[in-house]
């Protein structure tokens, strides 16, 4: 897979570099903050190689890529001037309060997830080693590994401070200094001494800030305004010293007096509320959450729940949200495996198996978008699988005791505790229920190219289907105002009067000819058909103007891969006909059957059958 090619296509289809405010990635998605989401071509993106789907949530434009997202992101960074940090511009789009909150939480937590996921897994493995007697609890090795696992969580405010500062566009190092101050051992001891504390006569509420989330987010949000305000009124010659000094001396005390305690209280009430919900309506709450968690994942807002999970474990010692996410993922894996068991399409069968394995590992977007949602009914079966496991967890009271890793089999150590055995059983319940529900509900299988060819009138099972490369109106070659094409001198085929200026591959094969003038391209299919796509008549005279080629000679392509984009209006304005002949140049090797002779077509719609 050519990641640089994919990244360039994605950048163009989101509206170009000038439309990108910032971009980051999570485990499976590129997350763009665009100045104008309307400029993004969602249909074009969803037809791009490597893209599984798109979503807009919280004003954020998300492109689901799957496991290869780090490589696509790296290629995007290398081939453009983009940065993961926000540009100093204001987005044209207005967000409501809830969308803005979700955007902030997601934007702050996504960059630090690797640190807390890795540390969480270490904590889980240490607990597992102690449980099985592989490690003595009071040994020096245990103490060191415990520090490695606990470090990211104890100093979580430091990680959050840096990430939040980037999101709120203030100095990340001053933000880290704010977090360092409220975590200072002397201050921690003072706040925990149980005595009355004051600062210049103002009362300071005792609170513990290690492993907390909300206090530091509020503190850095406050700092972003304080720092900018001080910067505006400070002479340039004094900015280096005065701005950070005054920011620290204002923000830290205000945090200790008001913001910090408020955040601690909010966090405590949030954890108590979640705990009470599951204590009083455990079965119903877990069925609902586990059965709908895949819908939350679709929006990309599951990362917004991470601070709640961390807060729950910090306050209560356990969490019920992460187990629901595990169950939803097992349901998706089960439904995908059911497709693997039942599908007759060898290619799709292989896809269902590999994405099912990936879902078991905790990354569900490939299975969800590539298999289950594509077939619709398996997605409903996956939700049923999650809900079935949720019922079991609700009855047995399963919780997680660590936040770490993906919600998949490698992260099972997060369940180590009194309900560990029930946790394992519940995962199997969701997986098995997902398989059973998908098999019982059934689904319409994806046809292979061979199946499509064999079903076309007069075509044998060894034939091939030629798809439409362009959205527009199908025309007979005889209607083309050029005797070379209309007379069949170059071969048989069809023509399309374009409605949109984009041509995609009509077959699976290899690019064998790319014209320097970019107006035409030749592809040889894997079954030997030689296809010529000629955009417009006599457009060679434009010498490449108004055309852009997206592939090069030798590239392999699949049906729907973008080949050429062109400006229909500019070509017409230059006096050229845009009708596009699609010719099978080795016509003498085939017999032809029209699947569709006229009317409007979309890219990838079958038009011609060869046998």
Automatic annotation (TrEMBL):
Residues 482-586 form the PTS EIIA type-1 domain. The chain crosses the membrane at residues 97-122, 142-161, 173-194, 206-226, 238-263, 283-308, 320-341, 347-367, 379-403, 415-443. Its main location: membrane. One of its GO terms (cellular component) is plasma membrane. GO terms for molecular function: kinase activity; protein-N(PI)-phosphohistidine-sugar phosphotransferase activity; protein-phosphocysteine-trehalose phosphotransferase system transporter activity. Residues 103-461 form the PTS EIIC type-1 domain. It is found in: Cell membrane. The active site is at residue 26. Keywords: Cell membrane, Kinase, Membrane, Phosphotransferase system, Sugar transport, Transferase, Transmembrane, Transmembrane helix, Transport. Coiled coil: none annotated. GO terms for biological process: phosphoenolpyruvate-dependent sugar phosphotransferase system; trehalose transport. Residues 4-86 form the PTS EIIB type-1 domain. This is PTS beta-glucoside transporter subunit EIIBCA. It comes from Bacillus velezensis (strain DSM 23117 / BGSC 10A6 / LMG 26770 / FZB42).
